[in-house]
Amino acid sequence: MVRIGTHVSSSKSIDLVFDRGKEVGATTIQFFLSSPRSWKWKEREDTEKELYLKKRANFGILPIVAHSSYLFNLASDDPQLWEKSIQGVINELTLCEELGIEYYVIHPGKAKGQKEEKAIQNIIKAIERVFSTVKLKNTVFLLETLAGQKGEIGKTTEELYQLIKPFQTENIGVCLDTCHLFSAGYRINTEEGFNNYKQELDALIGIEKVKVIHCNDTKTPFNSKKDRHEHIGEGYIGYKGFELFLNDTDFCKLPFILETPKVGNWDLENMRRLKGLIKAPVAQ
Ligand SMILES: [Zn+2]
Fold first, then answer.
1. Rounded to an integer, what distance in angstroms lies between the CA atom of residue 89 and that of residue 85?
2. Given 14, 78, 111, 164, which is the most exposed site by the fewest CB atoms within 10 A?
């Protein structure tokens, strides 16, 4: 049974993510732990956490994915921003552990004019700090594949490999994003391109390290290095790319999460389109 879901709002109270997921028939969900564009961190009340855990046990929606704030930049050469980012990740990860959230997805970072090797070293040092503070038992820390816009690190399998290599014994893995991969120059919407990418991924990182798939079409042409998500089948990737992922013997076991534009009934329509591409039964 392939699990298909979408990014939902966690505003007001965090337990509402389950109601919002159920509303669109999602069997897996993703959400932000705090406002993704604000540095303010608000500790959750115990009553709110209890309600979350109760619904988690009853709704049958799993696994759960938390997405980190967009403000964090673990690659930064600005010591203040770098420290603030580490503290932000520590706050979010601590809550993930407490709530038993399976996966925490983060964008590795942006080089912002630095040499890429330096940016990669900054990210590694930041992850070391995070892992020495939060002992991960329930949550896996996932680095996401990025499109490569504005100096983003994580646009190639090689870069992701360098980032996770020092942490082989930790709870660390990778989240794939179909839009980002295509924009970064991986032709994942042809059988040949898809197989080549999968082989590269398995050889360098290992398929077992891939835990979540962000399922987005793209508004920009192949290799654009831009990150502009589009509804399934309406963009440059097209149905074929999603069909390849959904019916792959390894990837079909992973949660597929939509991060497509939130307009009208499009969540329902995008989920319907993805389900329609699956050749095996879908989880209800
Ligand atoms: Zn992301």
1. 6
2. 78
Distance 144 CA to ligand 1 centre (A): 6
Write down the domain spans for the chain: 4-276
Ligand 1 mean position, distance from CA 143 (Å): 9
Q: Which two tokens stand for residue 244?
A: 């390849």
Round to whole Å and give the CA distance between 84 and 113. Answer: 20
Note the pLDDT of residue 263. Answer: 92
| Torsion angle, alpha carbons of 69, 70, 74, 77, to 10 | -140
Pairing outcome for strands 152-153 and 109-110: antiparallel
For residue 44, how far is its CA from the centre of ligand 1 (angstroms)?
23
Burial category of 125 from C-beta neighbours within 10 Å (exposed 0-12, middle 13-18, buried 19 and up): middle
Q: How far is the CA of 50 from the centre of ligand 1 (A)?
A: 27
> How many other C-beta atoms are found inside a 10 Å radius of the C-beta of residue 135?
10
**154-203 per-position pLDDT tens digit:** 999 999 999 999 999 999 999 999 999 999 999 999 999 999 999 999 99
**Distance from C-alpha of 127 to C-alpha of 101, rounded to nearest angstrom:** 19
Distance 244 CA to ligand 1 centre (A): 21
Percent above pLDDT 90 for the chain: 96
- pTM of the predicted model as reported, rounded to 2 decimal places: 0.96
Which CA distances in Å does 205 have to 44, 110, 175? 35, 21, 12
Ligand 1 centre to CA of 145 (Å) is 8
Question: Which CATH architecture does the domain made up of 4-276 adopt?
Answer: Alpha-Beta Barrel (3.20)
Ligand 1 midpoint to CA 99 (Å): 21
Rounded to the nearest angstrom, the distance between the alpha carbon of 126 and the centre of ligand 1 is 18
User: Distance from the CA of 70 to the center of ligand 1, in angstroms?
Assistant: 8
